[in-house]
User: Fold these one by one.
Assistant:
Number 1:
Amino acid sequence: MIGRVNRVALIGTGAVGSSYAFAMLNQGVVEEFVLIDLNKEKSEGDAMDLNHGLPFAPSATKIWFGDYADCKDADIVVICAGANQKPGETRLDLVGKNTAIFKGIVEQVMGSGFDGIFVVATNPVDILTYVTWKFSGLPKERIIGSGTILDTARFRYLLGDYFAVDPRNVHAYIIGEHGDTELPVWSQADIAGLPISDWTKNKPNFQQEDLDTLFLNVRDAAYQIIQRKGATFYGIAMGLVRLTKAILQNENSVLTVSAYLENKYGQDDVFIGVPAVVNRNGIREVVEITLSKEEQEKFSHSSSVLKNLLGTIFPK
């Protein structure tokens, strides 16, 4: 008897979804991968194209275009479907359009008998992660938004570039809303165990404005990329693969995902980007790092922005 294999269902094969599928195939993450999209022709073409690359892949993967019934045996359902952010539009501007879309998607997934983990990538991701939790009825631990996983990666990349150090040796977080109110946790940022302040002492011609500008480039990266190429998709696709691996391989990895807060960071009843331990059961726990007074105030503001918007969707 053949044992059960890992299956991931992807809903939405636009730029982000198809980039995620390509990255998943290249890294050989899962045994079964199903693509689901309203645009049947495009998704069938994606499945065909990906299958033709299997001879070059690190491991065998069964890939096909399917429907919501295929979610029943999925371990993870990744949602990349929804309206895209347009030039001049904030992530929060998308909330009305995508809440309606998500209601239909989540209800159909749950109608299949799905009992796994949801990973949400569509913007505004913190709001739509909360929406997925409400519409699915699943435990909060099994609803994970991509949160500030990409913002944190951008932060580490730019810090590594600035100090000429491999970004994989940079330990620094962006937390809060995946959007305009996010914040850097400078008080806990380090490279190889040394605080950033120690590195700046040895940086020729260092100016504080350099780090201020660096964070602005992190926060506004999506706007800059959208202005140049219309959308962001490679970075977030890589982040989603990293998150998928952490779940399926039961890694207990710490990632800055959109997680539900219960009396953490002084907040309740909100999904927001924070460091969390991720494993085969979803979010094992939220890691509550120590924030400076200013950072706590900024985080509280970011949370209030999300809560106010949630109040328009789910009035109390």
Number 2:
Amino acid sequence: MYKLYYMPGACSLAIHALLNELKQDVEVIDRSKVVDFDKLDSRGMVPILIDNGQVIREGAAIILYLLEKHKNSMLPESGLEKACFVEWVMFANATMHPAYGRLFFIGKTLADGPVKQQALNAASEAINSLWQAVERQLKNESYLFGAKISVVDMMLAVYAGWGKYFPVDIVMSEKVRNMIAAVNAHPAFIKAIQEETAASA
């Protein structure tokens, strides 16, 4: 059984949902309840996955590890299709995630006032341009890669929920909003939320 260290509402939720989608047993552990979390050389962050005693860090690395290990329809076998999929995993993990991270940084470091709001607005404008890229990839499909959900859709749905914490306008097209709604209604995603809520209680 896998062990997944998480924080409620964090990006670890997408990996939890992926494990459910792959039908893998997982024990989820709330990072805030672990006294010796630093012993995992966690760098202070989640997610952390443990597989047979081996610690795996960094969300994108964990995702690719799981998709390579378990049979699935998400990860193409090779070629340009696989490169495109990995590109979008990296877009979510290394571009969209840090863009939202700037909102959290500004929220914690700047005093309330016009300067802070200006910084938040600039960060949100950058996020809006990234959601436009997602819209272009969606075309007329339900998900980024067609009619079937992928872990990238799950990652983006998690990040989309972070905008509510800030007094900014995050603009998403109807296509993007429909994709996020579909992820939030997906059984593996719902199960992950329920399991994390129970574990954090």
Number 3:
Amino acid sequence: MGAGLVLGVADSSRSSLIQDLAWRLEAVAFDAVTLLARSFPIDAVSDFGAALVGWLGPLTSTNRVVETNIRIAFPDLDDTGVDRLVKAQWRALGRWAAEFPILDKIIADPGRVEVVNGERLATIARGPESVVFISGHFSSMEIMPAVIIQAGITCQITYRATNNPHVDARIRKSRFRYGVRLFAPKGGDGARELIRALARGECVALMNDQKFNGGVLAPLFGVDCHTAPGPSSFALRFGIPLTPMSVQRVEKARFRVIVHDDIHLEDTGDRNADIDASVRRVNAFMEDRIRDRPEEWFWVHKRWPNDVYRRQKA
């Protein structure tokens, strides 16, 4: 038994070393891609990403997820329309991926990022008011937190760490280049950190458009899906509004960031009912944005419950 334990530890150690080596090789590849991207003009990098992922995306198994999601959201769209939208979203996704290593260059160019209703951000920055910023995975979504920070707002930005710690460190460093320095890890610790930030009078920003197991069931495109209640819960707890934002691609690597009208939540004293009502309003906001520019949403994740996908296969 003792020998078996030693062999088990040795195998685990060897497996960890192999995993770390694989991660380091991925990090080297990440560095090479970043260096290459930063060597070319911004629009050329964006065009290359659109062409490459526009070609590769339809060949992947994820393409089936994308197509199914689109058919769930737009059941009346014919096959030609579905195929057109599938291809358009792959090209848009390719632009986002290729632009990530050069986002600081994009944001530093005042002609590339237009902010609509920027006076609302200025008001938040000047006053003691806190808000909960919400958005979805629209276009080059990383531009939104940069705009918030550059407006002078102290804001905790949530993010999902990558499995590869070496790549994650590089991603954080890349974000530092365009001013986003405040991160709150997701999960229980992250929620407590966000609550502490709001209690200090700071703002928080969260994406609220992806599947959240155990979340509130609320309709999106007429089909119930689990949605994170966190943003609504924070806003109700502190009596502050949700401030929705979205990012639109104007042309190539040029963007429009929109600060939408605040969503003021009703506090009836029934917290569960109030959160449910708020989540429904959040999903309605997301749906409106997706309908306006469907090719710019992040279609590659399964958004609805598994049984919805099983029915699509039947």
Number 4:
Amino acid sequence: MTPQDGGMHVVLSGDLTVYSVSELARQTETIPEGAVTVDLAGVGRIDTAGAWMLARLHQRMTEAGAQMHLAGARDEVMALLTSVTKSMPAPEPAEAAPPTSLLDRVAALGKRVAGSVGYLGGLLGYLGMFLSRLMRTLRHPREFGLTPLVHHCEEVGVKAVPIVALMAFLIGVVLAFQGASQLQQFGAEVFVVDLIAISILRELGILLTAIIVAGRTASSFTAAIGSMKMREEIDAMRTLGLDPVMLLFVPRILALLITLPILGIIANLSGLLGGALMSWVELGISPEMFRIRLMEGTDISHLTVGVIKAPFFAVIIGLVGCHAGMQVKGNAESLGRMTSSAVVTAIFAVIVTDAAFSIFFAQMGM
């Protein structure tokens, strides 16, 4: 590199290939801003790595407001440089600035509300399709396949038993330990049984079970249906005269309706077992005393309240998973985005529904 007429004159010689481009790129980083002339007359062989280095140097000089000229390049070298330059990715456009005025903020909020209303409308539409196909199944039982239902019951229910039971057992242990720590201050240790029973049977057992099922099942529904949509299998089913709702949605949602209440009962039993064990260890409440206090101090309505929620949670999780799967586009990025969205939406919907049920049962005096 030699100064020349207020600029810099760079002479390159030898082969400009992938083996030498790293060292050359390091040396060209020290080129000062200004007019630069690169003499390529002495360059022998050049590959795409060398051409990329020159194109990147030209791009860097242009962004800095400097000029770069190539001299002495052969026709084949210029053709390769032109091809590589055209193939370089264009810079991503800058993101739009967030709304600043009050009107922009109101418009953005309106768009979000309209999108939420449209999403709820889509879920209601899928609910209507599920109910209509379910009534058709009751009228024509032969059209319904029992094998997919059994398969999904195993995937949704049987394989979820270990994680649900372990989660509920640990929740019972934590409730008993924390309850004992607080109730011992007032000499009311025996009421820890009521605390565990009401918390698990009424709220935590079925709620945490639904959250776990939403995380593992809504994602699997979205991934399975979305993959079929990407491979155009759903379009092929419609071409063959098959109903995707009957074949894909109904068995999955029915499997959730059947297995989620059972998983909730398993979670209740595991939670009570964990609470009884910790009460025995921490407070000295024997299992027999725990059982007697449980039977005397806990009403069956608490179990009823918990079990009533299960079918509603099951329908919500199934609809969200199936709806998200049908929204997948023809690429893997869309599949991942919709899978993540389905899990978040299903968990959020389950928690909101549980809160609504809590308010409803409180107003009903249950």
